Amino acid sequence: MLSKDTMPDEYLDQVKRHLSVTWKDTDTDDRIEDMMLDAEVALNHMLGAEADYFKPGLDHELYLAYLLYAWNNCLNEFDAAYRTEIIRARHLHAYQKESGT
Predict the structure, then answer these.
(1) What is the mean pLDDT of residues 18-30?
(2) What is the mean pLDDT of the chain?
(3) At what angle do helices 83-99 and 26-47 cross, to 10 degrees?
């Protein structure tokens, strides 16, 4: 799990790039870091597993999409827009858990 103390700078930079945040501002960075921590908890719950959201793949795509919705204050629309991807990721995590991979 991420924490503000252990979050690598490149994670924040990657998310800021995805959100098109090009300015340097401590308050903005703090807001994005808080969103990143919340996104990890929310997606772990939705997917039924703890995932590495910075490893390329479906979990990473969902993480960045969730953050985009959070940044734009429309999280209430995320579940419906990404229902298919969430179900696909849940099945993938269930399969990985069963097969031990």
Answers:
(1) 97
(2) 95
(3) 60
